[in-house]
Design goal:
This protein is of the alpha/beta class and 331 residues long. The protein is built from nine helices and ten strands. The chain has helices at 2-18, 45-58, 66-81, 144-163, 197-204, 233-238, 240-252, 270-278, 314-329, and strands at residues 85-94, 100-109, 117-123, 169-175, 215-220, 229-231, 259-263, 282-286, 288-289, 297-298. Bound molecules: zinc ion.
Length: 331
């Protein structure tokens, strides 16, 4: 592209030299104005932390519980207070065991008329059991990290957008009923569709007909102390360019010890259904080990009672939040 511009310039120069005596062009080309540098606002990790604490204080956000209803209402009010146009999708969705769950997807739109859009999303429900723990396995978990952290970071992003709009219209979706999948104590059936019920519903019933976004970013388990965000395998398979954009941005910001270039196996998460069902290429920022002192897989807290506020680290929230902000403000 640059080479072609140079050639064009040479050609025009020759033209004017050859036609010395012609009148001055009444409509000279407007001078090239360099693109103004957009300053990405500073993500406040303490705010994100407080938003996680607030969710945990409601109690486990298990679909059908009072804590789930109360937290859902609070999230809607919070997003409205941060200037978003908010709508909800409510439906009954069938869980792995045949029971129906009251599902509520929460959708916040900024600049809804802007055709250029980016989608940010996380799940807001929490796991109804601690099926990877050795104690109290039938009791629900706090879900400070799995559920709370992605929402906490995106609420802070919403607060920032209200103060300064990026060029793109941003949609933030808090999907429900992500984490109600088949418990570990039952034999595995290999069916991923009992996870991510809210994003599956949304992919079939988007909040606007033919809704499109240039790309999406999912945040899941983005606040624990020993976090590592390897390139998640499903995202790499379905949206390599988005993964590259997010990881390179993080590394440029100096978060290269957290955002690592190793690739995980393919996992099932909301990004799979948003990608496959709605055609929006998405990257999943998710805590998942590939190599190192821990066995391959999610962090030690995953689906246990250790997933509480004691594992939440503001330096990790800052790295993820600032990276997401940089991605949306520099697009
Ligand atoms: Zn989970």
């Amino acid at each position: 592209m640059k080479d072609k511009l140079v050639l064009l310039g040479l050609f025009l120069g020759l033209f004017f030299v050859a036609c010395d005596d012609v009148e001055e062009d009444p409509n000279p080309p407007s001078p090239v104005v360099p693109k103004t540098t957009v300053i990405t606002p500073d993500f406040d990790a303490q705010m994100a932390y407080d938003f996680i604490q607030k969710q945990v204080d409601f109690g486990p956000r298990v679909p059908g519980s009072q804590a789930h209803r109360d937290c859902g209402n609070w999230l809607v009010e919070q997003l409205k207070a941060y200037g978003a146009e908010v709508l909800t999708q409510e439906a009954q969705v069938m869980a792995y065991d045949g029971t129906y769950l009251p599902m509520k997807n929460i959708i916040a739109q900024y600049q809804p008329d802007n055709k250029r859009r980016i989608l940010l999303y996380a799940h807001w429900d929490t796991r109804p059991f601690a099926d990877k723990d050795s104690v109290r396995t039938k009791e629900p978990i706090d879900g400070a990290n799995d559920g709370g952290s992605g929402v906490g970071v995106l609420l802070e992003v919403a607060r920032q957008i209200q103060q300064k709009q990026p060029d793109y219209g941003i949609d933030i979706i808090f999907f429900d009923t992500e984490d109600y999948g088949r418990p570990e104590w039952l034999p595995a059936d290999g069916d991923p569709s009992d996870w991510c019920l809210g994003s599956q519903y949304w992919a079939r019933n988007r909040h606007k007909p033919n809704y499109r976004a240039k790309f999406g970013v999912l945040l899941d388990m983005v606040g624990a102390k020993d976090a590592v965000f390897n390139r998640e395998g499903t995202s790499v398979a379905l949206a390599p360019g988005v993964v590259d954009k997010v990881w390179k941005t993080a590394q440029t910001l100096g978060y290269d010890t957290l955002f690592v270039d190793e690739v995980t196996g393919q996992t099932i998460d909301d990004n799979y259904f948003v990608n496959m069902g709605a055609g929006i290429p998405s990257a999943n920022i998710v805590h998942y080990h590939v190599s190192g002192p821990r066995p391959m897989g999610y962090g030690f807290f995953h689906h246990t009672h250790a997933d509480n506020m004691s594992i939440i680290d503001t330096t990790v929230l800052k790295a993820v939040g600032q990276t997401v902000m940089e991605v949306i403000y520099q697009e």
